[in-house]
Amino acid sequence: MAHEAKLVRTSAKRVFNRNVKKLVDSINSKDTAALIESRFKDLKQLWDDVQRKHEGYIESLENSKTTYDVEQEDGWIDEMDKVYDDVLRQKLAYFETVEDRKFLKRKEDRIRKKEGDKAIFRAEQARKVEEIAFRQDVENLEEALAAEIDKPNPAASMLETARTELKRQLEECKRVNGEYVLLLDAETAGDEIAWFTSLQKIYSQISKKIGDVIQRKVIP
């Protein structure tokens, strides 16, 4: 009876140790928290089983009035208890590390968002500055056109230079808008396409007016 109980206890210990190794390997491999938690749950059940089998073995010794070394048997379960406590500490340390990583990630995400918001604000302000410059150039060019439109010999060179400068300013608007859009999410970025399109339309209209005026220049 006692011999059979000892074999059962030995078998329970073997299964327990095998699962200890699996759990420790998972922790060292940094497997998912869900997998490690699942393996620890299984190990806890096996540890409970080892304790039951040990108590069953001791009970069988006492029932059969077999003489046994109490300290030796207590030492056996104490060693098993140390194994369980050690792997429990490893598991807890792993989850503390996971929580630390989550905390650091949340902190980094907040910093990135804050920096991202600042970058978006700066890019938006830069775009506003270039748009103001573009619209001011358009206004100046409209005034110049109004002054030249009825002249038989309009200042073609001046108008062409002004158109070139306006084109350059339009390209600058395109550049800063591109930098701004890259900082936005896909949905918001799509809404910003119309901003540059409206400036392109303004440029096309005034460029055509300039072309029409220049073509009227009388060649002596």
Provide a compact summary of the structure.
The chain is an all-alpha fold and 220 residues long.
Topology:
Elements: H1 2-28, H2 33-63, H3 70-148, H4 156-182, H5 186-191, H6 193-215
Helix pairs in contact: 1-2, 1-3, 2-3, 3-4, 3-6, 4-6
Oligomer: single chain
The level of helicity is: over 70%
Distance between the termini: 128 Å
Task: Sketch the topology as an H/E string, one letter per element.
Answer: HHHHHH
**CATH topology description of the largest domain:** Methane Monooxygenase Hydroxylase, Chain G, domain 1
Helix count from the secondary structure assignment: 6
Quick one: CATH class of the largest domain? Mainly Alpha
User: Which structural class best describes the helix and strand composition?
Assistant: mainly alpha
Largest β sheet strand count, sense and barrel closure:
none
Architecture per CATH nomenclature, i.e. the level-2 architecture of the largest domain: Up-down Bundle
Number of beta-strand segments: 0
Q: Round the Cα radius of gyration to an integer and report it.
A: 41 Å
Mean pLDDT: 85
Q: What is the domain tally?
A: 2
